[in-house]
Amino acid sequence: MAEGVFRSLTRSTPQISHIDSAGTGAYHTDDPPDPRTMAILEANGIADYDHGARKITSANFREFDYILAMDRDNLRDLLRARQRITARDGGKGEEGLGKVMLYGDFGGRKGEEVIDPYYGARDGFEIAFEQTVRFSKGFLKEVVCEDT
């Protein structure tokens, strides 16, 4: 969902060249988004989102400037993965690796996590949509505008 929202908000943002999403686990690999996700996106005018689930790779830490975690567990896992890459690369350190951040830090309430709606009802997906819109706009305002 977050990728679909972010893509829709950045269509005319030339500073954003590549957007992708991945999980910290290999759950539902290649599966499309949950039908409830698609229903919420479509109800909000995002009808062109297409994605297959995948697990983040080591290469992603070099391909992307920012890697945004949806919750603290994912943040911890991503930071550990980044540390392993740094250790493995020896003297290169953190140069060229994307910044790992909590997505919710851009929503106006530091430390806010995206509610995982998967095991709940439709209203959970509506809350997650509201959060990802708010977090995306905050990220664009705080990070992208600062980088220009």
What does this structure look like?
It is a single chain. The chain is mainly alpha-helical and 148 residues long. The radius of gyration is 15 Å and the shape is globular. The longest helix is centred in the C-terminal third of the chain and has 26 residues, at 122-147. It has helices spanning 2-9, 35-43, 60-63, 72-88, 122-147, and strands spanning 66-69, 99-102.
Describe the structure in brief:
The chain is mainly alpha-helical and 148 residues long.
Notable traits:
globular, 43% helix, single chain, mainly alpha, two-stranded parallel ribbon, 2 strands, 5 helices, 148 residues
Secondary-structure map:
Layout lengths: L1 H8 L25 H9 L16 H4 L2 E4 L2 H17 L10 E4 L19 H26 L1
Parallel strand pairs: 1-2
